[in-house]
Amino acid sequence: MSDTTVAELSHEIEGSGQGRSLWQDARRRFLQNRAAVVSLIVMIIIALIAIFGPLFAAWNNEEVDWNVLGDIASMGGPSIENGHYFGVDELGRDLYARVVQGTQVSLMVGVIGSLIAVTFGTLYGATAGYVGGRTDNIMMRLVDILMSIPYMFVLILLLVVFGRSMWLLFVGIGLISWLEMSRIVRGQTLALKSKEYVEAALATGVKHRVIVTRHIIPNLMGIIVIYATLLVPQMILTESFISFLGLGVQEPNTSWGALISEGASTLQYGTYWQLVFPLAFFIVTLFCFFFIGDGLRDALDPKDR
Amino acid sequence: MISIRTLTSTTILGLMLSASPLAAETHPVTNEALADEQVFVYRVGDEFASIDPQLSEDVQGGEFIRDLFEGLMNQDADGNLVPGVATHFEANADNTVYTFHLRDNAKWSDGKPVTAADFEYAWKRLADPETASPYSWFAEEMGIVNISEVMAGDLDPSELGVKALDDHTLEVRLENSMGHFPLMTTSEPTFPSPRWAVEAHGDDWTKPENIVSNGAYILTERVPQERSVRERNPLYWDNQNTILERVEALVISDESAALTRYLADELHRTEVPTGQFGALSEKHPEEAVTFPRLCSYYYFINMTENTHPALLDPRVREALYLAIDRDVITNAILQGGEFPAYSFTPEATANFVSPANPAKEMTQAERDERAAALLAEAGFDGSEIELDLLYNTSESHKKIAIIVSQMWKQKLGVETVLQNMEWKTFLEARSNQEFDIGRAGWCGPYNLASSFLDLMSSTHAYNDAGFANAEVDRLLDEAKVSADPSANFTRIEEILTTEYPIIPIYHYAGVYMMDETLRNWPVNNVEQKWYSRALYFAAE
Amino acid sequence: MTAFIIKRLLSAIPTLLILIIFSFLLMHSAPGGPFSSDRPLPPEVLANIEAKYHLDDPLPLQIWNYVVGVVTQFDFGPSFQYKDRTVNEIIGQGFPVTLTYGTISFVVAVVFGCALGMMAALKQNTWLDYLAVGISIGAQVLPNFVMAPILVLIFTLWLGWLPGGGWNGGAWPYLIMPVIALSTSFMASIARIMRSSLLEVMHSNFIRTARAKGLSSRDILFQHALKPAMLPVISYLGPTFVIMITGSVVIDLYFTTGGIGQAFVNSALNRDYSVMMGITILVGCLTIFFNLIVDILYAWIDPKIKL
Questions:
Q1: pTM of the prediction?
Q2: Distances in Å between the alpha carbon of B154 and those of B128, B147, B162, B172, C23?
Q3: Distances in Å between the alpha carbon of C71 and those of C61, C65, C178, C281?
Q4: pLDDT per position as a tens digit, B120-151
Q5: ipTM exceeds 0.90, yes or no
Q6: Which residues on C lie below 8 Å from A244 (Cβ)?
Q7: With contact defined as beta carbons under 8 Å apart, do A126 and A216 qualify?
Q8: Which residues of A touch C23 (CB under 8 A)?
Q9: CB distance A250–B420 less than 8 Å?
Q10: Does residue B225 come out as left (phi exceeding 0), alpha (psi in the -120 to 50 range) or beta?
Q11: Distance between CA B308 and CA A151 in Å, rounded?
């Protein structure tokens, strides 16, 4: 902090002061939105199940219950007695343990995927918007080009080419979603750049890096948070599609998509629980993310009130 | 909604009836009353790449080609040889020269007679490296004189030991004695091709508008990824005995979607999804059918230097072999009438005497005990062993891999990392030996022990796992020229159950849902060579 | 305007080139090739096959020849897997199928989505609104690979009203379930976007002014509010249309419609390089084209936007 100037300090105080009231305001508005609050609570419960669920499982996610194997349709249903709260899958493995483990994977795909997309998209968009001129032109032209690439096709190709590691899934899903983010961020950055306090900071010789991290990024937080929340369900949906194609995570690990796709294909054999439980988790979670996203947008984007 | 129902059902009905309703009233042999409508619709999981007899390499394509073309010999419902285009054949004393006599009433669908020259052309075409057939290895298996040189491009295809002596006589000269050579002429790569059509249209000659064929059916429609249709060929020499008017193959990749469509009466035949046979045969006892096949499902163990060191000890391999509870796999997972496999060659194989195998007689508890003891004897703690188990994407491979890995884990403590790969990646990993244990399935092309045990030769193209045993190689070489090689095969199986290069798991069954009025399905034909012209629908 | 369109079309050229090179390299780095098979081919045969399809040329030359073939003769080459088919034939067969059910699904999604969204916005915070929002989120989160088997169970197996799959030249009973399964989630997204954008417009000053002038709600909606409210919907529709007409892989796989979605997945799994390239280029061109259409529509709706 040796190079801190008075001007910069004053901006910092002003900036953070503004931020605090903005965020306090937003929190108040968010808490008034009942659907969003309920969703947030449900979401927290689901996350807790993902983390602590295994503690309550009578079986682990790969153990086969040899007693029910061979007659899943009549003996594999949900039961407290044998510890299969959600029943078992087609191979006699405990569905509760598998749903919990699938929840971990799917939430991770959603969160890590959107973190990658948001981080990359923000950095890229903010740089383009802030630097401007020819750099901006080239960078955004590149985004246009990448946007014309049929991304679902590329994802299928990627997974075929590089096998099916879980990290690749995270990165692949994240990397194809940063484009939209970068465009939004660039637009916002351009608008912010012409604000008086940024011009003042520039005039007083504050370094670019400091301006970006102190002024631009904090002011972008609202849109970033909203976008990230809305990206998570998209990521989870994409993952489920990948699992449907059989290109998802490796056994014995699983994900909601894999469980749902298995459950859907065995639906006609009378093992309804194999679809119902994972699908319920999936749908409830996606609902929550949508409501939380809407709530955040209403809270952080005052013009939409 | 009522209008939708009526309209739809008329549309479907209209589709079904579009074929000619001129079928015979009763079956010529059994005198059974025949259904008015003789249209057979069945599911194929994947579309066949080609219906060119010399280029096709998949089972679905083979089914199609057997209807469109006819080879020298055919198989009957039990797999016996019956005349095809050839009425009879003779061989010289040591089975190295075969002479086939062709019938004079066989015609191509454009009216030209089928001659011995069409076969000569087809076989040379198969061998010619210019044709670049993925199935050219079959020509090598046939062992025709000069085949290796022709395939390598060192000799002109005209030097191949096959010759049309006249329009109706075909002579084949073989490098070695081969008693089962006539059986090979029921395989699709040996079927004739019409030179004039191939030369006029090039690769496009197999399109419906160009194709010329000599079988009981002609190709009338081929919509990629959706359907292929063949219809009765009025010029076929035995046309009056053909009953089915029209046969449609629908491409449906999803097994359970296919089953739904079968249950909705859109199909007459579909595969039963793994593990559903029991439930389906309870609900539809007349329609769920199962019959044994000459096929083995097995795991092969990587025995090259890339493998897990523990696998180089035969005791470890035997322990893995013993710890698999095959009854659980056949009774609880597959449930379709499959048989547990303790040897590679199915016991039902003709002229095969399986060696005594103590493991087979034990109870599973005894096997498990012995497995644990063997592992300890070899000086390994199971939990220190972690094996990569490679399999290609498929529901049933996945299920078996998961169950087997749990058996190994619970009984031996051995950890398994499941490696599910789509086909092409699987092949690459297999040929690079990037696995410890891999899965394979093999159907013997003939009802002979050699069609299985040849795979155990150190030089066989399928031998990616590096198993090399001098005695096995010697026994196989001997068997090729021996009049009665059955002792050799018994001995090879014995070696396999002391060396354990592979772990047989089960012998396949054909498990299908089949319309109850569909008759004459050749369930006893272990190679499942079925011909649409032998099938028919009985009146309900 | 014309200058803008020409500029955009010109800029499509490098985009497509990058797409071609990128896909080409990605494809060739996949393990296995189009002719790797269970039983490895004898080397002489493999060499002949590779020569036939020019796979033995160096990669840059292959790319060059490919681009030249495409540009000069519109020739996307032969399929490596299907001996008697060219890529043009495969796309010519599959694309009309996908285009048919995709376009119908698109129209269905737009009509019902806009109607649902408008209803929700106009009746904000009534039970109608909650119902519409509930339906649209529900429809959005139900994956179509779950919806497809459920539809088939109901309409084919239980009721016997509709065929469970196939295409049959696009006869309408074969179209219904694919269209429902494909359009639902897009309809839901459109409804949500429509609702929030219409709400925003309805609360803006110029609508308040219009209302103060005493215009009827109907006039306000159709003459003033709808046009600006469509902007976000349109920007969503551009890429969506491409996704829909290039087909959902799920629809093709489950209903065996024979569209290019399935052809693409099969070609990727079989390493049928030329088919994979052909479909990727087709989809890339469509994406570029419809992005351009969206921009033009934008300018037409909102003259303030400079092209």
A1: 0.85
A2: 11, 10, 17, 20, 39
A3: 15, 10, 35, 12
A4: 999 999 998 888 888 888 888 888 999 989 98
A5: no
A6: 143, 145, 250
A7: yes
A8: 154, 157
A9: yes
A10: left
A11: 39
